[in-house]
Design a protein that fits this description.
- Two copies of one chain form a homodimer.
- Chain A contains six helices and nine strands, in the order βββαβαββαβαβαβα.
- By secondary structure, the first copy, chain A, is of the alpha/beta class.
- In chain A, strands 3-1-2-4-5-6-7-8-9 form a nine-stranded mixed sheet.
- In chain A, helix 1 (about 60-70) crosses helix 2 (about 90-95).
- Chains A, B: This is 7-carboxy-7-deazaguanine synthase.
- Chains A, B: Keywords: 4Fe-4S, Iron, Iron-sulfur, Lyase, Magnesium, Metal-binding, Queuosine biosynthesis, S-adenosyl-L-methionine.
Chain lengths: ~240, ~240
Protein backbone atom coordinates (compact mmCIF):
# COMPACT_ATOMS: atom_id res chain seq x y z
CA UNK A 1 0.00 0.00 0.00
CA UNK A 2 1.06 3.57 -0.56
CA UNK A 3 2.67 5.96 1.90
CA UNK A 4 1.07 9.30 2.69
CA UNK A 5 2.73 12.38 4.12
CA UNK A 6 0.41 13.47 6.91
CA UNK A 7 0.40 16.82 8.71
CA UNK A 8 -2.49 15.96 11.03
CA UNK A 9 -5.54 13.73 11.44
CA UNK A 10 -8.28 15.05 13.68
CA UNK A 11 -11.96 14.96 14.46
CA UNK A 12 -14.75 14.21 14.49
CA UNK A 13 -15.70 17.85 14.35
CA UNK A 14 -17.99 19.70 12.00
CA UNK A 15 -16.91 20.77 8.56
CA UNK A 16 -16.61 24.53 8.89
CA UNK A 17 -16.74 25.55 5.24
CA UNK A 18 -18.59 25.21 1.99
CA UNK A 19 -21.08 22.69 0.75
CA UNK A 20 -20.73 20.26 3.65
CA UNK A 21 -20.78 22.92 6.37
CA UNK A 22 -21.99 21.57 9.69
CA UNK A 23 -21.44 17.92 8.82
CA UNK A 24 -19.44 15.78 11.29
CA UNK A 25 -16.12 15.02 9.65
CA UNK A 26 -12.71 13.52 10.28
CA UNK A 27 -9.99 15.54 8.60
CA UNK A 28 -6.91 13.99 7.04
CA UNK A 29 -4.55 16.84 6.31
CA UNK A 30 -1.68 16.05 3.97
CA UNK A 31 1.62 17.90 4.18
CA UNK A 32 2.98 19.68 1.11
CA UNK A 33 1.60 22.05 -1.47
CA UNK A 34 2.39 23.23 -4.99
CA UNK A 35 0.96 26.66 -4.11
CA UNK A 36 2.02 29.19 -1.52
CA UNK A 37 -0.93 31.54 -1.03
CA UNK A 38 -0.07 34.78 0.74
CA UNK A 39 -2.84 34.32 3.27
CA UNK A 40 -2.59 30.54 3.64
CA UNK A 41 -4.29 29.47 6.86
CA UNK A 42 -2.63 26.05 6.95
CA UNK A 43 1.05 26.98 6.63
CA UNK A 44 1.99 24.19 9.02
CA UNK A 45 0.89 21.81 6.25
CA UNK A 46 2.25 23.87 3.35
CA UNK A 47 5.55 25.52 4.14
CA UNK A 48 8.50 23.18 3.66
CA UNK A 49 10.08 24.71 6.74
CA UNK A 50 7.53 22.66 8.68
CA UNK A 51 8.03 19.39 6.84
CA UNK A 52 9.71 17.89 9.92
CA UNK A 53 6.21 17.85 11.38
CA UNK A 54 4.80 15.76 8.51
CA UNK A 55 4.72 12.04 9.23
CA UNK A 56 5.11 9.47 6.45
CA UNK A 57 2.34 6.99 7.21
CA UNK A 58 1.28 3.85 5.45
CA UNK A 59 -2.28 4.02 4.20
CA UNK A 60 -3.38 1.29 6.61
CA UNK A 61 -2.12 3.31 9.56
CA UNK A 62 -3.92 6.42 8.34
CA UNK A 63 -7.05 4.35 7.99
CA UNK A 64 -6.66 2.82 11.46
CA UNK A 65 -6.49 6.36 12.89
CA UNK A 66 -9.65 7.46 11.03
CA UNK A 67 -11.51 4.38 12.29
CA UNK A 68 -10.31 4.96 15.83
CA UNK A 69 -11.35 8.63 15.84
CA UNK A 70 -14.78 7.81 14.42
CA UNK A 71 -15.32 4.84 16.72
CA UNK A 72 -15.69 2.71 13.59
CA UNK A 73 -18.93 4.52 12.76
CA UNK A 74 -18.92 5.69 9.13
CA UNK A 75 -18.83 9.43 8.53
CA UNK A 76 -17.40 11.89 6.05
CA UNK A 77 -13.61 12.02 5.72
CA UNK A 78 -12.22 15.27 4.37
CA UNK A 79 -8.89 15.04 2.55
CA UNK A 80 -7.22 18.41 2.78
CA UNK A 81 -3.79 19.93 2.98
CA UNK A 82 -1.69 21.46 1.63
CA UNK A 83 -2.77 20.02 -1.66
CA UNK A 84 -3.95 16.45 -1.11
CA UNK A 85 -3.94 15.87 -4.87
CA UNK A 86 -0.16 15.54 -4.85
CA UNK A 87 -0.40 12.47 -2.61
CA UNK A 88 -1.51 8.92 -3.46
CA UNK A 89 -4.91 8.83 -1.76
CA UNK A 90 -6.51 6.16 -3.98
CA UNK A 91 -5.80 3.31 -1.57
CA UNK A 92 -7.25 5.16 1.42
CA UNK A 93 -10.50 5.88 -0.41
CA UNK A 94 -10.73 2.33 -1.70
CA UNK A 95 -10.25 1.07 1.84
CA UNK A 96 -12.84 3.32 3.44
CA UNK A 97 -15.67 3.30 0.92
CA UNK A 98 -16.65 -0.37 1.33
CA UNK A 99 -16.99 0.32 5.06
CA UNK A 100 -19.53 3.08 4.36
CA UNK A 101 -17.29 6.10 4.88
CA UNK A 102 -17.66 9.01 2.47
CA UNK A 103 -14.79 11.05 1.08
CA UNK A 104 -14.57 14.71 0.23
CA UNK A 105 -11.45 16.45 -1.01
CA UNK A 106 -10.40 20.09 -1.03
CA UNK A 107 -7.90 21.13 -3.68
CA UNK A 108 -7.02 24.20 -5.69
CA UNK A 109 -7.41 22.26 -8.93
CA UNK A 110 -3.80 22.36 -10.09
CA UNK A 111 -3.17 18.60 -10.24
CA UNK A 112 -5.64 16.03 -11.62
CA UNK A 113 -5.65 12.41 -10.47
CA UNK A 114 -7.43 9.40 -11.94
CA UNK A 115 -8.86 8.57 -8.49
CA UNK A 116 -10.89 11.79 -8.21
CA UNK A 117 -13.88 9.86 -9.52
CA UNK A 118 -13.89 7.76 -6.34
CA UNK A 119 -14.68 10.84 -4.25
CA UNK A 120 -18.18 11.66 -3.03
CA UNK A 121 -17.37 15.34 -3.33
CA UNK A 122 -14.58 17.30 -4.96
CA UNK A 123 -14.27 20.87 -3.72
CA UNK A 124 -12.28 22.93 -6.21
CA UNK A 125 -10.93 26.21 -4.84
CA UNK A 126 -9.32 28.31 -7.55
CA UNK A 127 -7.22 30.98 -5.87
CA UNK A 128 -8.05 34.67 -6.42
CA UNK A 129 -5.53 37.48 -7.11
CA UNK A 130 -4.93 38.25 -3.42
CA UNK A 131 -3.34 34.81 -3.05
CA UNK A 132 -0.46 35.76 -5.32
CA UNK A 133 -1.04 32.53 -7.28
CA UNK A 134 -2.29 32.17 -10.86
CA UNK A 135 -4.83 29.56 -11.91
CA UNK A 136 -4.00 27.30 -14.84
CA UNK A 137 -7.51 26.79 -16.17
CA UNK A 138 -6.53 23.93 -18.46
CA UNK A 139 -5.32 21.94 -15.46
CA UNK A 140 -8.34 23.00 -13.48
CA UNK A 141 -10.60 21.55 -16.16
CA UNK A 142 -8.59 18.34 -16.12
CA UNK A 143 -9.52 18.03 -12.44
CA UNK A 144 -13.19 18.46 -13.27
CA UNK A 145 -12.96 15.82 -15.98
CA UNK A 146 -11.13 13.42 -13.67
CA UNK A 147 -13.93 13.76 -11.11
CA UNK A 148 -16.40 12.18 -13.52
CA UNK A 149 -19.56 11.36 -11.55
CA UNK A 150 -18.30 12.82 -8.25
CA UNK A 151 -20.22 15.85 -7.05
CA UNK A 152 -18.08 18.93 -7.79
CA UNK A 153 -18.43 22.35 -6.24
CA UNK A 154 -16.52 25.63 -6.56
CA UNK A 155 -15.32 27.44 -3.46
CA UNK A 156 -13.67 30.81 -3.84
CA UNK A 157 -12.07 32.82 -1.07
CA UNK A 158 -12.69 36.56 -1.36
CA UNK A 159 -10.65 39.22 0.40
CA UNK A 160 -11.46 42.37 -1.54
CA UNK A 161 -13.18 43.92 -4.53
CA UNK A 162 -10.55 42.60 -6.95
CA UNK A 163 -11.07 39.06 -5.67
CA UNK A 164 -14.81 39.53 -5.86
CA UNK A 165 -14.76 40.54 -9.52
CA UNK A 166 -12.37 37.69 -10.25
CA UNK A 167 -14.72 35.24 -8.49
CA UNK A 168 -17.58 36.42 -10.66
CA UNK A 169 -15.59 35.82 -13.83
CA UNK A 170 -14.31 32.45 -12.59
CA UNK A 171 -17.82 31.33 -11.67
CA UNK A 172 -19.06 32.35 -15.13
CA UNK A 173 -16.76 29.72 -16.62
CA UNK A 174 -18.63 26.99 -14.75
CA UNK A 175 -22.26 28.05 -14.60
CA UNK A 176 -23.51 24.59 -13.64
CA UNK A 177 -21.25 24.13 -10.62
CA UNK A 178 -22.66 24.99 -7.19
CA UNK A 179 -20.69 27.99 -5.94
CA UNK A 180 -19.53 28.97 -2.46
CA UNK A 181 -17.95 32.33 -1.66
CA UNK A 182 -15.95 32.52 1.53
CA UNK A 183 -14.61 35.69 3.14
CA UNK A 184 -10.90 35.37 3.84
CA UNK A 185 -9.21 35.41 7.24
CA UNK A 186 -6.60 38.17 7.11
CA UNK A 187 -5.25 37.03 10.48
CA UNK A 188 -4.46 33.37 9.77
CA UNK A 189 -2.55 31.40 12.38
CA UNK A 190 1.24 31.53 12.18
CA UNK A 191 2.33 27.89 11.75
CA UNK A 192 4.18 27.74 15.05
CA UNK A 193 1.24 29.04 17.11
CA UNK A 194 -1.48 26.64 18.20
CA UNK A 195 -3.95 29.29 19.26
CA UNK A 196 -3.09 32.69 17.79
CA UNK A 197 -5.44 35.64 18.14
CA UNK A 198 -7.66 36.56 15.21
CA UNK A 199 -9.43 39.74 14.20
CA UNK A 200 -12.95 38.37 14.65
CA UNK A 201 -14.68 41.69 14.03
CA UNK A 202 -12.69 42.17 10.83
CA UNK A 203 -13.65 38.69 9.63
CA UNK A 204 -17.33 39.28 10.39
CA UNK A 205 -17.14 42.65 8.68
CA UNK A 206 -15.76 41.07 5.48
CA UNK A 207 -18.56 38.50 5.59
CA UNK A 208 -21.20 41.24 5.93
CA UNK A 209 -19.56 43.17 3.09
CA UNK A 210 -19.68 40.10 0.85
CA UNK A 211 -23.37 39.56 1.58
CA UNK A 212 -24.07 43.21 0.73
CA UNK A 213 -21.81 43.17 -2.33
CA UNK A 214 -23.53 40.21 -3.97
CA UNK A 215 -26.97 41.63 -3.12
CA UNK A 216 -25.97 44.96 -4.71
CA UNK A 217 -25.08 43.06 -7.90
CA UNK A 218 -28.21 40.94 -7.64
CA UNK A 219 -25.86 37.98 -7.87
CA UNK A 220 -27.91 35.30 -6.19
CA UNK A 221 -26.14 32.15 -7.42
CA UNK A 222 -23.44 31.80 -4.77
CA UNK A 223 -23.82 30.55 -1.25
CA UNK A 224 -21.97 32.96 1.01
CA UNK A 225 -20.52 31.23 4.03
CA UNK A 226 -17.89 32.11 6.60
CA UNK A 227 -15.36 29.70 8.09
CA UNK A 228 -17.62 28.51 10.87
CA UNK A 229 -14.79 26.81 12.78
CA UNK A 230 -13.01 30.18 12.97
CA UNK A 231 -16.13 31.80 14.45
CA UNK A 232 -16.45 28.99 16.97
CA UNK A 233 -12.86 28.21 17.86
CA UNK A 234 -10.74 31.05 16.47
CA UNK A 235 -7.46 29.85 15.04
CA UNK A 236 -7.26 26.83 17.31
CA UNK A 237 -5.95 23.79 15.47
CA UNK A 238 -7.52 20.31 15.56
CA UNK A 239 -11.17 21.37 15.86
CA UNK B 1 -56.38 36.51 -5.33
CA UNK B 2 -55.95 35.71 -1.67
CA UNK B 3 -54.99 38.04 1.15
CA UNK B 4 -51.96 37.35 3.31
CA UNK B 5 -51.25 38.66 6.78
CA UNK B 6 -47.67 39.89 6.59
CA UNK B 7 -45.37 40.77 9.49
CA UNK B 8 -42.41 41.74 7.31
CA UNK B 9 -40.83 41.27 3.90
CA UNK B 10 -37.09 41.79 3.73
CA UNK B 11 -33.92 40.91 1.85
CA UNK B 12 -32.08 39.92 -0.12
CA UNK B 13 -29.85 38.62 2.62
CA UNK B 14 -28.43 35.19 3.20
CA UNK B 15 -30.46 32.40 4.71
CA UNK B 16 -28.94 32.02 8.17
CA UNK B 17 -30.12 28.53 9.06
CA UNK B 18 -30.38 24.96 7.97
CA UNK B 19 -30.14 23.34 4.57
CA UNK B 20 -30.07 26.57 2.55
CA UNK B 21 -27.60 28.37 4.82
CA UNK B 22 -25.67 31.05 2.98
CA UNK B 23 -28.07 31.30 0.05
CA UNK B 24 -29.35 34.77 -0.93
CA UNK B 25 -33.00 34.91 0.02
CA UNK B 26 -35.96 37.25 0.31
CA UNK B 27 -37.99 36.51 3.42
CA UNK B 28 -41.75 36.77 3.54
CA UNK B 29 -42.70 36.53 7.20
CA UNK B 30 -46.36 35.88 7.91
CA UNK B 31 -48.01 37.05 11.11
CA UNK B 32 -49.76 34.58 13.38
CA UNK B 33 -48.92 31.20 14.86
CA UNK B 34 -50.69 28.19 16.33
CA UNK B 35 -47.71 27.64 18.66
CA UNK B 36 -46.22 29.82 21.34
CA UNK B 37 -42.72 28.50 21.99
CA UNK B 38 -41.16 29.73 25.23
CA UNK B 39 -38.00 30.87 23.46
CA UNK B 40 -39.64 32.11 20.23
CA UNK B 41 -37.24 34.45 18.42
CA UNK B 42 -39.97 35.96 16.20
CA UNK B 43 -42.53 37.04 18.78
CA UNK B 44 -43.30 40.14 16.72
CA UNK B 45 -44.80 37.75 14.16
CA UNK B 46 -46.34 35.33 16.66
CA UNK B 47 -47.80 37.09 19.67
CA UNK B 48 -51.30 38.42 19.02
CA UNK B 49 -50.39 41.47 21.08
CA UNK B 50 -48.38 42.53 18.01
CA UNK B 51 -51.04 41.82 15.40
CA UNK B 52 -51.52 45.57 14.82
CA UNK B 53 -48.12 45.37 13.11
CA UNK B 54 -49.30 42.70 10.66
CA UNK B 55 -50.47 44.06 7.34
CA UNK B 56 -53.20 42.34 5.33
CA UNK B 57 -51.78 42.35 1.81
CA UNK B 58 -53.12 41.03 -1.43
CA UNK B 59 -50.91 38.36 -2.94
CA UNK B 60 -50.08 40.59 -5.91
CA UNK B 61 -48.79 43.29 -3.59
CA UNK B 62 -46.65 40.81 -1.69
CA UNK B 63 -45.32 39.59 -5.00
CA UNK B 64 -44.61 43.12 -6.21
CA UNK B 65 -42.54 43.71 -3.08
CA UNK B 66 -40.54 40.51 -3.58
CA UNK B 67 -39.83 41.46 -7.18
CA UNK B 68 -38.81 44.95 -6.15
CA UNK B 69 -36.42 43.73 -3.44
CA UNK B 70 -34.83 41.20 -5.77
CA UNK B 71 -34.57 43.61 -8.67
CA UNK B 72 -36.69 41.16 -10.65
CA UNK B 73 -33.84 38.67 -10.60
CA UNK B 74 -35.08 35.24 -9.50
CA UNK B 75 -33.83 33.96 -6.18
CA UNK B 76 -35.06 31.86 -3.27
CA UNK B 77 -38.06 33.16 -1.35
CA UNK B 78 -38.40 31.88 2.19
CA UNK B 79 -41.91 31.76 3.62
CA UNK B 80 -41.67 31.96 7.37
CA UNK B 81 -43.57 33.27 10.34
CA UNK B 82 -45.16 32.69 12.69
CA UNK B 83 -46.51 29.61 11.00
CA UNK B 84 -46.87 30.35 7.27
CA UNK B 85 -48.90 27.17 6.85
CA UNK B 86 -51.96 28.88 8.37
CA UNK B 87 -52.02 31.39 5.50
CA UNK B 88 -53.08 30.92 1.88
CA UNK B 89 -49.68 30.99 0.14
CA UNK B 90 -50.65 28.91 -2.92
CA UNK B 91 -51.27 31.93 -5.13
CA UNK B 92 -47.93 33.56 -4.26
CA UNK B 93 -46.00 30.40 -5.13
CA UNK B 94 -47.98 29.92 -8.34
CA UNK B 95 -47.18 33.51 -9.28
CA UNK B 96 -43.46 33.33 -8.57
CA UNK B 97 -42.49 29.92 -9.89
CA UNK B 98 -43.11 30.63 -13.59
CA UNK B 99 -40.78 33.63 -13.22
CA UNK B 100 -37.98 31.35 -11.99
CA UNK B 101 -38.19 32.10 -8.28
CA UNK B 102 -37.78 29.21 -5.86
CA UNK B 103 -39.80 28.79 -2.68
CA UNK B 104 -38.80 27.36 0.66
CA UNK B 105 -41.05 27.26 3.70
CA UNK B 106 -40.33 26.88 7.41
CA UNK B 107 -43.06 25.42 9.56
CA UNK B 108 -43.37 23.36 12.71
CA UNK B 109 -45.45 20.77 10.88
CA UNK B 110 -48.73 21.26 12.72
CA UNK B 111 -50.90 22.20 9.71
CA UNK B 112 -50.77 20.48 6.31
CA UNK B 113 -51.75 22.26 3.09
CA UNK B 114 -52.37 20.85 -0.36
CA UNK B 115 -49.99 23.43 -1.84
CA UNK B 116 -46.91 22.15 0.02
CA UNK B 117 -46.06 20.11 -3.08
CA UNK B 118 -45.44 23.35 -4.99
CA UNK B 119 -42.51 24.19 -2.71
CA UNK B 120 -38.90 23.60 -3.68
CA UNK B 121 -38.09 22.90 -0.04
CA UNK B 122 -40.17 22.26 3.04
CA UNK B 123 -38.29 22.71 6.31
CA UNK B 124 -40.12 20.95 9.10
CA UNK B 125 -39.12 22.02 12.60
CA UNK B 126 -40.75 19.88 15.27
CA UNK B 127 -40.42 21.68 18.58
CA UNK B 128 -38.47 20.06 21.45
CA UNK B 129 -39.54 19.94 25.13
CA UNK B 130 -37.90 23.27 26.03
CA UNK B 131 -40.42 25.01 23.75
CA UNK B 132 -43.33 24.04 26.00
CA UNK B 133 -45.18 22.75 22.92
CA UNK B 134 -46.08 19.16 22.08
CA UNK B 135 -45.74 17.68 18.60
CA UNK B 136 -48.74 15.96 17.05
CA UNK B 137 -46.89 13.40 14.94
CA UNK B 138 -49.95 12.42 12.96
CA UNK B 139 -50.30 16.00 11.73
CA UNK B 140 -46.58 16.21 11.19
CA UNK B 141 -46.74 13.21 8.89
CA UNK B 142 -49.64 14.79 7.02
CA UNK B 143 -47.30 17.68 6.24
CA UNK B 144 -44.70 15.28 4.88
CA UNK B 145 -47.30 13.57 2.72
CA UNK B 146 -48.62 16.89 1.44
CA UNK B 147 -45.11 17.86 0.36
CA UNK B 148 -45.03 15.03 -2.17
CA UNK B 149 -42.01 15.58 -4.43
CA UNK B 150 -40.80 18.72 -2.61
CA UNK B 151 -37.45 18.31 -0.88
CA UNK B 152 -38.13 17.92 2.85
CA UNK B 153 -35.65 18.41 5.66
CA UNK B 154 -35.88 18.25 9.45
CA UNK B 155 -34.56 21.09 11.57
CA UNK B 156 -34.57 20.74 15.33
CA UNK B 157 -33.62 23.45 17.80
CA UNK B 158 -31.69 22.13 20.79
CA UNK B 159 -31.27 23.97 24.08
CA UNK B 160 -30.23 21.25 26.50
CA UNK B 161 -29.67 17.57 27.10
CA UNK B 162 -33.41 16.84 27.26
CA UNK B 163 -33.91 18.51 23.85
CA UNK B 164 -30.93 16.64 22.48
CA UNK B 165 -32.28 13.23 23.46
CA UNK B 166 -35.69 14.21 22.12
CA UNK B 167 -34.09 15.27 18.80
CA UNK B 168 -32.40 11.88 18.52
CA UNK B 169 -35.70 10.09 19.01
CA UNK B 170 -37.55 12.43 16.64
CA UNK B 171 -34.90 11.98 13.95
CA UNK B 172 -35.14 8.20 14.33
CA UNK B 173 -38.76 8.45 13.15
CA UNK B 174 -37.60 9.85 9.81
CA UNK B 175 -34.26 8.22 9.03
CA UNK B 176 -34.34 9.25 5.36
CA UNK B 177 -34.83 12.98 5.97
CA UNK B 178 -31.73 15.20 5.99
CA UNK B 179 -31.37 16.50 9.54
CA UNK B 180 -30.19 19.85 10.89
CA UNK B 181 -29.59 20.52 14.58
CA UNK B 182 -29.53 24.14 15.64
CA UNK B 183 -28.43 25.45 19.02
CA UNK B 184 -31.09 27.73 20.50
CA UNK B 185 -30.74 31.42 21.28
CA UNK B 186 -31.63 31.85 24.96
CA UNK B 187 -31.55 35.63 24.52
CA UNK B 188 -34.06 36.11 21.69
CA UNK B 189 -35.15 39.63 20.82
CA UNK B 190 -38.09 41.05 22.73
CA UNK B 191 -40.68 41.92 20.06
CA UNK B 192 -40.58 45.64 20.76
CA UNK B 193 -36.79 45.90 20.46
CA UNK B 194 -35.21 46.20 17.04
CA UNK B 195 -31.67 45.51 18.16
CA UNK B 196 -31.59 43.87 21.60
CA UNK B 197 -28.36 42.57 23.07
CA UNK B 198 -27.65 38.85 22.89
CA UNK B 199 -25.41 36.53 24.84
CA UNK B 200 -23.08 35.69 21.96
CA UNK B 201 -20.63 33.71 24.05
CA UNK B 202 -23.48 31.66 25.50
CA UNK B 203 -24.80 30.93 22.01
CA UNK B 204 -21.35 29.91 20.75
CA UNK B 205 -20.87 27.75 23.83
CA UNK B 206 -24.13 25.88 23.18
CA UNK B 207 -23.02 25.32 19.58
CA UNK B 208 -19.68 23.90 20.72
CA UNK B 209 -21.47 21.71 23.25
CA UNK B 210 -23.76 20.34 20.54
CA UNK B 211 -20.79 19.51 18.28
CA UNK B 212 -19.10 17.68 21.18
CA UNK B 213 -22.31 15.97 22.28
CA UNK B 214 -23.04 14.43 18.88
CA UNK B 215 -19.39 13.40 18.49
CA UNK B 216 -19.49 11.72 21.92
CA UNK B 217 -22.49 9.70 20.76
CA UNK B 218 -20.87 9.04 17.36
CA UNK B 219 -24.06 10.47 15.90
CA UNK B 220 -22.83 11.65 12.52
CA UNK B 221 -26.11 11.99 10.63
CA UNK B 222 -27.09 15.56 11.56
CA UNK B 223 -25.64 18.74 10.21
CA UNK B 224 -24.97 21.01 13.17
CA UNK B 225 -25.38 24.66 12.28
CA UNK B 226 -25.79 27.86 14.26
CA UNK B 227 -28.05 30.74 13.31
CA UNK B 228 -25.51 32.49 11.14
CA UNK B 229 -27.49 35.73 10.96
CA UNK B 230 -27.32 35.95 14.76
CA UNK B 231 -23.53 35.57 14.68
CA UNK B 232 -23.31 38.25 11.99
CA UNK B 233 -25.97 40.73 13.02
CA UNK B 234 -27.04 39.79 16.56
CA UNK B 235 -30.76 40.19 17.10
CA UNK B 236 -31.12 42.92 14.49
CA UNK B 237 -34.30 42.52 12.48
CA UNK B 238 -34.53 42.67 8.68
CA UNK B 239 -31.14 41.14 7.87
Amino acid sequence: MSTLRIAEIFGPTIQGEGALIGLPTVFVRAGGCDYRCRWCDSLHAVDNAHRHGWTPMETRHVWAKVRELSGEVPLTVSLSGGNPAIQPFRALIETGKPEGYRFAMETQGSVARDWFDLLDMLVLSPKPPSSGETVDWARFEECLEAAGPARCVLKIVVFDEEDYLWAKAAAARFPTLPLYLQPGNHTPPPPEALDAAIDMEGILQRMRWLVDRTAEDRWFAPHILPQLHVLLWGNRRGV
